Batch of 2 targets.
Target 1
Amino acid sequence: MSVDAVEVAVVGGGVMGLAAAWELARRGLRPVVFERFARGHREGASHGATRNFNNAYDEQHYLDLLVRAKEGWDALGLVDGEPLLRLHGLVTHGDVDLESIERRLTERGIHAEILSSRDAASRWAGMRFTDAVLFSRDAGVARASATIGELERRIVDAGGDVRWETPVIRIDETDSGVDLVLADGRVRADTVVVTVGAWTTKILPGLGLPRLAVTEETPAHFRPVDGSVWPSFNHYVDPARYPATVYGMPTPGEGVKVGFHRVGDPVDPDARPHRITHADALADYVREWMPGVDPASAVPISCTYTSTDDSAFVLDRRGRIVVGAGFSGHGFKFAPGVGAVLADLALDSTALAAAPFQLP
């Protein structure tokens, strides 16, 4: 059996693994990424054109990570003449403490202002508001698929490698390094970063991970019926009326993406049914709250969430294994910051992520 040796290995070629590899490459290493699926696959949580760049947080550890992520997004620069973040703004409304979020964002120098429902409805005629709205112009969407391509390009340009369709069967830690068992050989590395999403528990069964629930989520794109201007949005709805918080964003060429957050059925990622759930409730929500789209025009999208019980990320190191997991459906926007934290952990065995992200 052949044995290959690399400086540092990254297992999992979604946005978090690629962001970690890019950060390692920026620091002079030559990381090698191993991804079980082909380039452009749709089996995980990183595919599709857009992800919500939602900055409406009031917890300090997330805001710290958001600031670090924004530095990374800025460093990635323009792709095809356009930034990877489209900062068309975010509105947040419903049953949430808007004043606390506004205060925390303002303290960080991030734009935030509270608008009346009338002012918000005048600005975004495609949506309906009944109470005050928090608006931040420093938010919008991340261009997801373009981000994946740009991260790979930068890794390769820096001397690293991304090996698609190269599943890692097992990870064995030894006294001198880490062995990755592949179908046709082994790869040895001093340290491995593992970012495999829904497969985390399967590949790291003895690491002491918290419970990670894998669900299949099915938001949908809806067709706009007029020329309304669209922000990204969060709506903390009445739980007696709808199953969960609603999020969404405009996706050029596909419509307005709308979804319930973390309501999908539990699934085995290796036997995913690709079953649509909550479609009627989502159409009812759109009919009530979004007059600017056609509620009968839904085109469902399928993706997975891998969630911790409290939705907190896992960013930590055990021995020579660094893990990034449990992004709970709100991780993509943080990817450059997550990549930087994972690189810190990989290069310094004494480094620590923020306490809420650490393993027990």
Target 2
Amino acid sequence: MIWRRGAGNRQDRRDGAGLLAQLRRPPGGRDARIMLFAQLLDRTGTGVWAASCVLFFTFVVGLDARQLGLLLGAAGVAGIAGSPLAGHLADRFPVRTLLIGSHLLRLGTVCAMLVITRFEVLLLVVAVTSLGERASKMLEMLFATRAAGEQRATYQALSRSAANAGYALGAGIAAIGLAVGTREAYHALILGNALSFLAAAALVWRTREQDGHGHRPGHGSARVAGGTGDAAATGPTAAANPWRDRGYLRFVLLDIPMCLDDSILGVGLPLWLVDHTDAPHAVVPAFLFVNTVLVVALQLTVSARVRLPRQAARAVGLYGLTTLACCTLLALTPEHGAWAASVTLLAAAVLVTAAELIRSVSSWELAVSLAPQEARAAYLGVAGMSQSIQKSAGPLLLTGVVMAAGPAGWLALGAAVAGLAVVQRRAGLRRLDALQAAAPV
């Protein structure tokens, strides 16, 4: 059973602690606490930029719709390369140094947007910024894997809570600048985003480098993985190169549709409301509000129940069922009647958020547990591609196929994700069994 918990041990008492208490004493100690604060500042700046970039490029830079589409497309493609590139470099250089470098890289590219007007140069700058963003997220994940050890699921929950709080704060700051609407106000928002990278880099500089075994060099600590994860971490895989490990590549490929909750929330719900219902447009911001509040409030609780690799593999099936329920609600949303449509869409937002809560833990835990410890950085870099690919292909799938087919498209999407979730669940359990059987005693 997925949600079963052991009784009376210290880990359960930690998981039951409040969010603020956990943030003060996170797994990984001082370095983890500093990293969480750095992530909060980073995501605050990212939230500012995400809420204002389209309007900045349109009204300040003067791009048309075609140029804007090319710009965002280039950012998506470059982001796909960020994770594997960071994983490759993390096998050769300290993670802490690379993370500082990625923050400073984005500091430079974001500041360059203040003076660049040529579209060709701006295209390159935006692409490099996106590459640096995906690389930094992968490096934060690797840092957490090494620093938090067996409690990495708890750290991941705290990380997501801090990140969502940062996004919400950044969106609020951006709203002030957008209300002013002048060129100077947009430039102030960009500078605020740049300063967040500088502050994050300074905080990361205060941490100590973690080695690949979950402790600081010269200090004893716990193993990185516990239970079945130990076998997964030390067992021999088909190859130390993730690009030649067909089993791991299968996991990454199946993980792409397991990330579609992101596009459903950000693209599917708003467009379905506008194009197919009488619900007021003022409901659209409520989707993000519901998502942010639930993630901050419940991520730690969900993570407490999906700590081990086998629990994560079984939770993938629950993700598929939750996504299917969300898509079914969207298919059944009444076209007429503002109140009925609004309530149905908000219920769908709750379900897709529940799917996100499950996916954020299960996907991350499996990405770590199914990778060999001696090549974990490179493997996690490849695993990080699934979210980047989904961000590029997911909106096109929803707008060009699912919503074009109407309610039947939503039902087909939900059934497909649920079916692939079953395949991912079985494949993950089989690989865990194989790794455990091959692990040395």
